[in-house]
User: Fold this.
Amino acid sequence: MTTLLLIRHGRTAANTGGVLAGWTPGVGLDDVGREQVRALAERLRPVPLAAVVASPLDRCQQTAAGIAENRDGLAVATDERFGEVRYGSWTGRTLKELTREPVWKVVQAHPSAAVFPDGEGLAAVQARAVAAVRAWNASLGPDAIYAACTHADVAKSILADALGLHLDLFQRIVVDPCSVSVVTYTDTRPFVVRVNDTGGDVRALIPPKRRRRKRRPADAAVGGGAGR
Assistant:
C-alpha cells in the first residue's frame, strides 16, 4: 500500500492578488507561505518519507525543499508532470478579468472539455499527473510514503481520479495553499484518507510496525508432514 502525501505549495503574492501565475518564472513564496511551509515541515517530521517530488516551478521547489530539509540523504526530485496547468494566454491575468471570458464557464461547469487558449487541456493535465503518481508508486514500492508538491488544479485532478469522480466534478474539491491531501494506493483501488488538511495530527499516517509471527510447534508439525 503506497501512501501519497499530496501537497499544494505555500502561499504566494499571486494567490493573494488573484493572479493566474501558471508557468510564470520567479513566483516564489511570500512571508506567510514560508511560515506555512515551516509549520508543515514540522508537522510532517515524524512521518518517514521515501521521497519528496515537486513541480519544477519555484513555489513548489521552495515548499518541497522545506519539507525535505533536515531529512538525511533526502533530496527533492523534480517531475514536470506535477507542474502547473499551462494556461497559455491566460497566464498572468487576474481571475476577476478571466471570469468574463467565454471559456471560464466551460472550466467551471465542464472542465473535461476545457482547453486554455494557446495552452493545455485539463483532461491532459489529469492524465499526466495521474501517470506520474502511478510511476512513482511503482518505483518506490508498496510500503513507501512519499510527498508530491504540486498546484491546486493538478492536485484536485489527482484527487478526483482517486475518488472515482469524473473530471467535471473536480471543482467541488478544495485544496488550499500548503494543505495536505492523503491517498493510499492498493492493488485494487485507491483510498482517499484526507483532503485539504491544514493543521491535523499526522501521526495516524505512520504505518504500524509489522509483528513477526511466532512459529508454533503445531505449525512445525504440519509443515514437516507436508512432504510425506
